[in-house]
Amino acid sequence: MTASSSQPADPVRTLYVEHHSWLQTWLRGKLGNAFEAADIAHDTFVNVITSGMAARIEQPRPFLATVAKHLVIRHYRRRVLERAYLDALALLPEDLAPSPEERLIALESLQAVDQVLDALAPKAREAFLLAHLEGLTYAAIAERLGVSMTSVKRYLMQAHRQCFLLAFA
């Protein structure tokens, strides 16, 4: 018996060897771009590795496809956010335009806030956006959402807590 056959197989390695090519091909068909497919396939396996779930996956392809779909959605959301940010910058006078470094920092911050907001319950996200983008009062937000002011306060506390955690992560 050789050393390799006496030890249990590494579930991550097995998962990768048996399904990476399939996942990348599947993503290429969905995205129409081999480079993006390779990036998202890579990120999918990174997520699986960091989750520690590789050994417990019973149906690898549906599982990997689900993880990859979420990453594709996040990828497109980042693209939309980046496009909106660049469009807003294009409206600024040249002397007020941020440096490339400032642009990158701002874009990364926007993407992080977007992820935080995406993780919130829908009403908490809506309350946060109404308060901070439209400047509505608690009473106006409560009326708009059809909830009590106590609920609005709770929603905003949840959102602010998540933003605070992001700031100090």
Tag the structure with descriptive keywords.
globular, 169 residues, mainly alpha
Kindly describe this structure.
The protein has 169 residues and is an all-alpha fold. The protein has helices spanning 3-6, 11-31, 34-51, 60-90, 100-119, 122-132, 138-145, 149-167. Helix 3 (34-51) packs across helix 4 (60-90) and helix 7 packs across helix 8. The longest helix is centred in the middle third of the chain and has 31 residues, at 60-90. It is globular, with a radius of gyration of 22 Å. The termini are far apart. 13% of the residues are buried.
What is the radius of gyration computed over CA atoms, rounded to a whole number of angstroms? 22 Å
**What does the main sheet amount to?**
none
Poorly predicted runs are: none
Q: Proportion of β residues?
A: under 5%
Structural class: mainly alpha
How far apart the termini lie comes to 48 Å
Shape annotation = globular
Order of helices and strands: HHHHHHHH
Helix segment tally: 8
Helix fraction, binned, reads over 70%
- Mean pLDDT level: 89
Number of distinct beta strands: 0
